[in-house]
Design a protein that fits this description.
- A six-stranded mixed sheet has the order 6-7-8-3-9-10, with helices on both faces. A four-stranded antiparallel sheet has the order 2-1-4-5, covered by helices on one side. It has a four-stranded antiparallel sheet with strand order 12-13-11-14, covered by helices on one side.
- It folds into two domains: about 220 residues, 3-Layer(aba) Sandwich (Rossmann fold), CATH 3.40.50.300; about 70 residues, Alpha-Beta Plaits.
- α3 packs parallel to α5, α5 runs parallel beside α6 and α9 crosses α10.
- The radius of gyration is 23 Å and the shape is elongated.
- It is an alpha/beta fold and about 325 residues long.
């Protein structure tokens, strides 16, 4: 896949802002960013659900604007929201989807059983969806998306709302799909561990713009040394700013205030620096409630690029509602 200045506007709101991405055949490529960053809108354009305002993209060699029908033939998609019919069984859901792709008879039945077996749901094929757990529904949606043997698979927040154990199980199915079926996968996520675990390469997206791209290790290598995280007492008040300035000046390091009580500092050698941080805090009568350090994470990369953590960076409620409403109107 390749995007060229791909842009989507909803009135005055720019949901996706001139993004350029090239995704190699057979890789898992991730769009990592907070809610409201433009990830789902990008998926909807690439899967021809939404028409770009500007730019275009090639998916499997087909232009999403000029050849949307060809694109739909070669893709599978798992939406962020559940799209399974809860009044049907697992097998019946698969059957309806397969018929939409022109499959029928014994061939369709064989493909359904194969896909259900792949995700460990063969024994549940005749059970009503109402009796499925959230993880089982997600696995069924993954099975449904590959029944017609697509070349490219879109996964929009594939583990959203799942418990940690189920999330890891879904990760294994995603890795198996790529390994055993050689399918190119574009996935969106705001889970840092998920992006780190699954993606060969990823693009960090914020406010509709791509702000960094590379392998997880390449992105993390942008921050050398260690990352110190500090939580200070609420009583610090205006002294917090002075605390940041003195740390930056005395230790010659990069310190950022995430909010009124949390600080992130990038240093070459945390064990050597930490005692000096406590000395400065003591002199300013600032209470350090908690201090930890680690090697850089993808969240630290996001903080370095944007000044805030990815978990705190979701789009505003108004912005997200405007976007959802615009999408519903477009679908209608």
């Amino acid at each position: 896949m390749e995007t060229r200045g791909l842009t989507k506007k909803f009135g005055d709101l720019v949901a996706v802002d001139h993004i350029d991405i090239a995704i190699r055949r057979g890789e898992i490529f991730g769009l990592l960013g907070p809610n409201g960053a433009g990830k789902t809108t990008t998926i909807h354009m690439l899967s021809t659900i939404l028409r770009p305002t500007e730019g275009t993209a090639l998916v499997g060699g087909f232009d999403i604007v000029e050849e949307p029908g060809k694109v739909r033939e070669i893709i599978g998609i798992v939406f962020q929201d559940v799209t399974i019919d809860r009044n049907l069984t697992g097998f019946q859901n698969m059957w309806v989807y397969g018929r939409l792709y022109g499959l029928s008879g014994a061939v369709l039945r064989e493909k359904i059983i194969e896909a259900l077996r792949f995700v460990g749901l063969e024994e549940w094929k005749d059970v009503s969806i109402r009796k499925y757990s959230g993880g089982m529904i997600r696995r069924l949606e993954i099975a449904r998306s590959i029944i017609h043997e697509p070349e490219i698979l879109f996964l929009d927040e594939p583990t959203l709302g799942l418990d940690p154990h189920t999330r890891v199980n879904v990760w294994e199915y995603i890795k198996r799909i790529r390994r055993e079926r050689n399918i190119t996968i574009l996935m969106t996520t705001h889970y840092l561990e998920e992006a780190d675990m699954l993606c060969d390469r990823l693009a960090i997206i914020d406010h509709g713009k791509i702000i960094a791209m590379g392998t997880p290790e390449e992105l993390k290598s942008r921050i050398s040394g260690d990352v110190i995280r500090i939580e200070i007492g609420d009583s610090a008040g205006p002294l917090a700013g002075r605390f940041i300035r003195e740390i930056t000046s005395a230790l010659n390091c990069n310190a950022r205030m995430l909010d009124r009580s949390r600080i992130v500092i990038n240093v070459p050698d945390a064990p050597h620096i930490i005692p000096q941080i406590f000395d400065i805090a003591t002199r300013l009568n600032i209470t350090i409630k908690e201090l930890t350090y680690s090697h850089p994470s993808l969240n630290d990369v996001f903080i370095r690029l944007t000044g805030r953590g990815i978990r705190e960076a979701g789009g505003s409620w108004v912005e997200m509602m405007r976007l959802r409403r615009a999408i519903r109107i477009r679908r209608g």
